[in-house]
Amino acid sequence: MLSYNDLLHYHDEGYVLIERAVPEGMLMPLRAAGQRITERTRRGDWPHKRAIGDEDIWGRSDLLRPEAGEPVFSEYMASAVVLETVAALLGVSSGQDTPLQLELVNMLVNPVHRDFEIGWHRDLVPTTLPPEEEYARLLEIRHGVQWNTALYDDVCLRIVPGSHIRASTEQERDIVQHRSFDPMPNEIVVRLEAGQGVYYNANLLHRVVYAKDRRRETIHACIGTVDGAPLRGDLYTWLSWMCAPEFEETLPSCLRPLYENFVRMAKMMDQRARQPGQQPRH
């Protein structure tokens, strides 16, 4: 259970570390499932991936797809540590009437042929916006939380604490736009031991550095609330496969209210997209 100080730290700094982020007894099954699907992806048998050209990968997507055949990922998402942490950070209930919706469940992995980096960015707010507009959008988009849960020790993520609630400085803007692999003032490396997690606001300034010779298998997932649906329209396109009726049958019962929220919002967003002038902002 998160403490008041945990919640305050998340609000002010944009992230919180969770010591026991993997349910008891689940680390080894998650590792085994992660290895199986990584091997499938590297062989070309799993097309849902984040690739580096044609030669390598840095992530695998859509781990809840029934064809993955790895139900341990949905069991993990249904765990108390996930649902209670997300609900506490977003200030909502995780029960039957929850406003939470099921979203991305991916895995981040190390490449094997060469090191790889992603430059500084915010996930949901373009850093090219003028400062006033950037700040307004940061205040507006606060309807979700994402997290990394490490199955092996992980030192890939760099963040700028507190950057989720203010516009970028001139120096930060210059780095993001012109030299996005450079060190950023006040950046920290998020160091996770196996079984630990970091839950964070997607609009923190952040980047990742992957080393090919350091094993990484880290669950990367997000859950939001239905209130934020009009601001995150792309999500429903990426996850349109979840609307297949048979998918719900593969989910633990406690995830079904989150799934039903997703489907309801996906249908609403699709209707909006079909109406001229009513496309969602994202």
What does this structure look like?
This protein has a domain at 4-112 and 143-151 and 189-201 and 215-269: Domain of unknown function (DUF5070) (Thiol Ester Dehydrase, Chain A), CATH 3.10.129.150. It is of the alpha+beta class. The relative contact order is 0.19. It has helices spanning 4-13, 27-43, 72-77, 80-90, 131-140, 170-178, 234-238, 245-248, 256-273; strands spanning 15-18, 49-52, 56-60, 100-109, 116-121, 144-150, 157-159, 188-189, 197-200, 206-210, 217-225. The protein contains nine helices and eleven strands. The strands form two sheets. A seven-stranded antiparallel beta sheet has the order 1-9-6-11-4-3-2.
List keywords for this structure.
32% helix, 4-stranded antiparallel beta sheet, single chain, 282 residues, Thiol Ester Dehydrase, Chain A, alpha+beta, 9 helices, 7-stranded antiparallel beta sheet, 11 strands
What is the topology?
Elements: H1 4-13, E1 15-18, H2 27-43, E2 49-52, E3 56-60, H3 72-77, H4 80-90, E4 100-109, E5 116-121, H5 131-140, E6 144-150, E7 157-159, H6 170-178, E8 188-189, E9 197-200, E10 206-210, E11 217-225, H7 234-238, H8 245-248, H9 256-273
Antiparallel strand pairs: 1-9, 2-3, 3-4, 4-11, 5-10, 6-9, 6-11, 7-8, 7-10
Computed structural class: alpha+beta
CATH homologous superfamily of the domain at 4-112 and 143-151 and 189-201 and 215-269? Domain of unknown function (DUF5070)
Q: Strand percentage, roughly?
A: 15-25%
Question: What is the approximate shape?
Answer: globular
**CATH architectural label of the domain at 4-112 and 143-151 and 189-201 and 215-269:** Roll
Cα distance spanning the termini: 33 Å
Question: Quick one: how many beta strands?
Answer: 11
What is the fold named in CATH at topology level of the domain at 4-112 and 143-151 and 189-201 and 215-269? Thiol Ester Dehydrase, Chain A
Rg: 18 Å
Low-confidence segments, given as residue ranges, are: 278-282
Q: Looking across the biggest beta sheet, what order are the strands in?
A: 1-9-6-11-4-3-2
Helix content: 25-40%
* Average of the residue pLDDT scores: 93
- The topology string of helices and strands comes to HEHEEHHEEHEEHEEEEHHH
Q: What profile does the largest beta sheet have? A: 7 strands, antiparallel
Task: Give the count of helical stretches.
Answer: 9
The first-level CATH class of the domain at 4-112 and 143-151 and 189-201 and 215-269 is given as Alpha Beta
